Amino acid sequence: MGEIVLVRHAAATGQEATAPLTIDGQHQARALDHFLRQFRIDRVICSPFRRAVESIDPFCRRAGLRVETDPRLVERVLSVRNLTDWREHLRRSFDELDYCLEGGESSRTAQERGMSVVREALVSTRRCALVTHGNLLALILKWADATVGFELWSRLSNPDVFVLHTDGHGARGFSRVWDQDQGDSA
Known about the structure:
Elements: E1 2-8, H1 23-36, E2 43-46, H2 50-63, E3 67-69, H3 86-95, H4 107-123, E4 128-132, H5 134-144, H6 150-155, E5 160-166, E6 172-176
Parallel strand pairs: 1-4, 2-3, 2-4
Antiparallel strand pairs: 1-5, 5-6
Helix pairs in contact: 1-2, 4-5
């Protein structure tokens, strides 16, 4: 059975690509370092956004791993416009995978982009962790379980960790392994 560790970044100061982690996010990144040791990860593929790289950097430094950045793991753009009702649009995009707003990316397109990285990681002989963002992570989980939607996305924590399971017959599933309280004590 193939497994991929999926990691959502720690708390950040904003949504822009250059947003750094908050002080709490830095503590969460150190908690992630300790938590991820149990998975014997030997390859990390990460969104190039600063908050994602800073979230996994303590783990990679301690493990002697290089952070491989991949632009396919950046967050999904819902719309280029500022929407006051963006949550309703996001909810709709989980229900209608081809729903797409002006300048945005449909859930299906984002999911396929994220899954292309997952598929490549699964054929690797190395145990991989993929570090990404909440919306894209939820869409990857939706690939594994079609019932995943807005509700799961809304319950994600910063950080969060899931293990995605696959087998040679295409059966798949996932397990949430992160307890959001563990990041609070770090």
